Structures are given as structure tokens and as C-alpha cells.
Amino acid sequence: MKLKKYELVRAIDKVKSVVQKNPQRPALGGVLIKEGYVIAANNEITIQVKVEGADEESFILPAKAFDLIKNLPEGEVEVKCDEKYVVTIQMEKIKNSYQSFPAEDFMYSKIETGEENGIILPGKLLIESFSHVLYAAADKSPGHQELEGIYLEGGEECMNLAATDGHVMCWDQIKASGVSDLKLIVPKTAAKKLTSMGMDDDVNLSYDSNSAIFKTDNYVIHTRIYNGKYIPYQKMFIEMDNYTIVNRDELIGAMTRAKMCTDENVPAEFDVSDREINLILKDKVTNYQEKVALQEPIRNPIRIGFDSRLVLETIKAFTCENITLNFSGSKTPIIVQAEDSDMKALVLPVMLKGASK
């Protein structure tokens, strides 16, 4: 078959992170070209990317060929596989061959997408919401696998996305219909991959008790899902009457400078009064302070501490110009809200030296 080089490279770049480096099944150490798709799979996720002209035959393209294809001149590249499963790549004066495996050895999830029963979601908003909440999911949480995922829960004409690692929590919403029965936990690794796909079109989501499928005109992403009951995240976001508004970039800049001057594990102190936050980070040799102006005066002054890394990651997850900071007390979480969406997050406080117990 003959394929446009840039199309093949684009598809490989989308799926190659899923290719197993040392697979138990050697055939999964490459990508399957079949029925118009380039396909990669591992134990958790299968990704199919549509490629024009890739529907003539089925074969496995070894990972060793990826770099060669990327460095070929622009134009059409011929890829073929013989009866001994030798894959040959040829373009003008360039030719190379690789020993591969039978296409049927490539084991991947072939579950029907169930489009007739699927939920239609706005792709751009879905990906933005995944991007907002991803940081809050745990990378590893032994005994609590549900914390390693993003929780999708249907509501009235909306879909909620939530994530937490037990120290921070983020909750976002997008408008959607027909989602009232939706409750599933998508692994963080799969959600992260979804955000990298550039899915601007409508997404058809179908699922069962073990897996979920996200499908657009150009992509099919099949992922296993986690079982378990998710924590009642909505109850954590209580109303607070002590709040203020701050420019997000200014607060990020102050936090970044403070962390550059102090040890990684130093807590961040927010001394909030009237129209400013006095940000303080200090260790044995440094005492960094910077004042950040507030756009609304706070009703009740408060002194509160946070894990500096977690509070900075939380603020960075927002994309709006200004954020609202809601306080209840020095021992209760801060709730951060976006000005342009339903996104909100909370961060647990830490005890500061000299604070009353």
C-alpha cells in the first residue's frame, strides 16, 4: 500500500506511547495497520487512528520502523508485507525491511462501539474538562484504585468530571444530554491520552461494566475502567462567605518565585487581609515574602498554610484570568473557583508553626 508520509507519521505519533516496550506478546511491540486504521494496544488502552489508504491489507509495523518513517522525505511511502511477515518500507532510493509477526497475533479490544446507545459529548469541552481535573488524580493509590482515575457522573443536562488524590480535589462540568445514568471511572493514564488526541469533533461515548469507548470520525479509544464507589465529591464543596478574587497569573508568578528560593517541602503561608495576600515561604536560610493584590477585599482576615506544590498545581490547572479564593477557617480546605466556567478545586491546609492547635 502507498500512504502519505505525513499522514502515517501523524498517526504513529498519536499512538506510539501506547506501544509496549517489552511486551509479553511480541506482536504488541508495534502497530497494527488494518481496515483504514493504525492501531496500538496495551493492557489498559487501545487507540485506533484513521489513515487514508490503509485499508488494502493487514500487517504489523514494528516500532523499529517508526524513526525511519519519520525521517523520510515528504511524499508517498510504500509499505508492504510478504507471506513470511517481512515488512518492507520503500521510498524513491530508500528501502528497508523488518521481520514482523502475523496480524492475527496482535491482540486488542474489538468490542463493538454501540453507537446507537452512545452518549454524544462536545469533544472540545470534554478534553478541556479532562485537562482541568487530571492533575488532581493520584498516580498511585494502593488499595484505592478509584483515586487513580477521573470520575464521570451524569447530572441534569450536564456531565460532572471529578478527581482527587486525597489532598486536592477538582470538579468540572460540561453541558450534555442523556447522561443521567452515567457513572464510570476512567484511568488517569487513559484520560491523559485522550487530552493529547485533539478531539474537537463530537465524541460518542459508550460503555459497559468493564470498559468505555470514546469515538470520533478519526479516532477510537477503548479503555478499561475502574470499579468501585467514588467518594461524595460534591458534598466537599460547601458555600463560604469569606472570599476574595485574585489575578491567577500574578499568584502563580509569586508562588513560582517563592518556591525557587526555598526547599521543595516548605509550606506556603497565605496571610490574607483586606486587599492583599502576603505570601510567605521560609526555610533555614531563606525567608521569602511577596504581596499579591486582591481585587475584592476579604471580609475576615485569615492565616492559612498549604503544601506549596499542591496549591501551585491547583492554581495552574485553571485557565481563566481571575480566580475566586474561598476560605472558611485555617483548618478547613480552600476552595478555588473559575470566573468563566463551572470548574472548582479544593486544597487541604497544613499546620503552620505558631498556629493554634
Draw up the topology in text.
Elements: E1 2-4, H1 5-15, E2 30-34, E3 37-41, E4 45-50, E5 59-62, H2 66-70, E6 76-81, E7 86-91, E8 94-99, E9 119-121, H3 123-133, E10 149-154, E11 158-164, E12 168-175, E13 183-187, H4 188-195, E14 203-207, E15 211-215, E16 219-224, E17 242-247, H5 248-261, E18 267-273, E19 276-282, E20 287-293, E21 302-307, H6 308-317, E22 322-327, E23 334-338, E24 344-347, E25 349-350
Antiparallel strand pairs: 1-6, 2-3, 2-5, 3-4, 4-16, 6-7, 7-8, 9-14, 10-11, 10-13, 11-12, 12-24, 14-15, 15-16, 17-22, 18-19, 18-21, 19-20, 21-25, 22-23, 23-24
Helix pairs in contact: 3-4, 5-6
Bulk shape: elongated
CATH level-1 class of the largest domain: Alpha Beta
CATH superfamily membership of the largest domain, which one? DNA Polymerase III, subunit A, domain 2
Question: Considering DSSP H and I runs of 4 or more, what fraction of the residues is helical?
Answer: 10-25%
Q: How many domains comprise the coordinates?
A: 3
| Global mean pLDDT | 92
